[in-house]
């Protein structure tokens, strides 16, 4: 793929970034009260970040970086690029385009089955990248994406398009170092009888602001959106998961579990939107946070917006301190206080990750390491 198209994307991104203001609404994805905009100031991350994207996919599918695409694949990229997530939506999406050097394209043909591993490492500066995942009719896929790196402002978007009767499990883990910040938007569009299960985990970065959306466009679509985050030191998380229902007989479930230790802060926002044409929709939303330490803080902002009758939908939210009686009980069973705390934390988050063995096992390993410093 030539550099001309990417250069145009970067130029437009630079102009758009300069013209857009930071969000100022009371409940914006990056809110001053909870997540300060200056944490994402590109002046703190000079120049373009160096990053690498490594893909490993099953035979018979497309799983390539933008720089590796052939002509037909490049045509597909241009057709789908920003059809689901536009750079004008947020100042940091414009910044993503302004610094975009590469991205990834995954295409799974009709009735094919596939697994794809995506490993992204970003180093220093601003790293902007974009992903597109397309499942054709009847396709099934599992995608495992990991983001790591040091001293970077990582800004990304991932657009997912699910054809009729397709099925996708998408695991994502962010584990940047504490000198980095992360902003990401992931959005899936589902056609008739399509299904998606998101498992997203946010563990690293000084500040991480993320949006994971599902748009159910046709009957029979189902979206499950599971999220977890773990904060320590002075980390800040601002996570939003949302389900938009535009057709009847759709269903979904949104669940977030966050653990905050030391002086970390976390905000979870969730929305179920059901429009006037989406009768007989069933969708449920729950956000829960566990505080380990007196200085940790959590906010939960669940919302429902329903424009029709004959639906089943509810939401709930809790913020709790870790139960000292449970810790005491586990200590009587031979565990140290730190081991008891880790056991409770793993059990608390397990429900949000139980749909994915790989995500749960990876989370346990990382948390075991992080808990040594708590």
Structural features:
9-stranded mixed β-sheet, 6 helices
Describe the structure.
By secondary structure, the chain is an alpha/beta fold. It has helices at residues 3-19, 71-80, 91-98, 324-332, 337-353, 357-370, and strands spanning 50-57, 62-65, 100-108, 113-123, 126-135, 140-150, 153-162, 167-174, 181-190, 195-202, 207-216, 222-231, 236-245, 251-261, 265-274, 282-292, 297-306, 312-321. The protein has one domain (3-323). It has 6 helices and 18 strands. A 9-stranded mixed sheet has the order 1-4-6-8-10-12-14-16-18, covered by helices on one side. Strands 2-3-5-7-9-11-13-15-17 form a 9-stranded mixed sheet, with helices on one face. It is globular and about 65 Å long.
Q: Uncertain regions: pLDDT < 50 for 5+ in a row? A: 27-32
Tally of DSSP β-strands? 18
Tally of alpha and pi helices: 6
Radius of gyration: 20 Å
Major β-sheet, in short? Answer: 9 strands, mixed
Strand content: over 45%
Helix content: 10-25%
Instruction: Tell me the overall shape.
Output: globular
Distance between the termini: 47 Å
H/E series = HEEHHEEEEEEEEEEEEEEEEHHH
Q: How would you write the strand order of the largest sheet?
A: 1-4-6-8-10-12-14-16-18
What number of domains?
1
Q: Give the averaged pLDDT, no decimals.
A: 90
SS class: alpha/beta
Strand and helix map with partners:
Elements: H1 3-19, E1 50-57, E2 62-65, H2 71-80, H3 91-98, E3 100-108, E4 113-123, E5 126-135, E6 140-150, E7 153-162, E8 167-174, E9 181-190, E10 195-202, E11 207-216, E12 222-231, E13 236-245, E14 251-261, E15 265-274, E16 282-292, E17 297-306, E18 312-321, H4 324-332, H5 337-353, H6 357-370
Parallel strand pairs: 3-5, 4-6, 5-7, 6-8, 7-9, 8-10, 9-11, 10-12, 11-13, 12-14, 13-15, 14-16, 15-17, 16-18
Antiparallel strand pairs: 1-4, 2-3
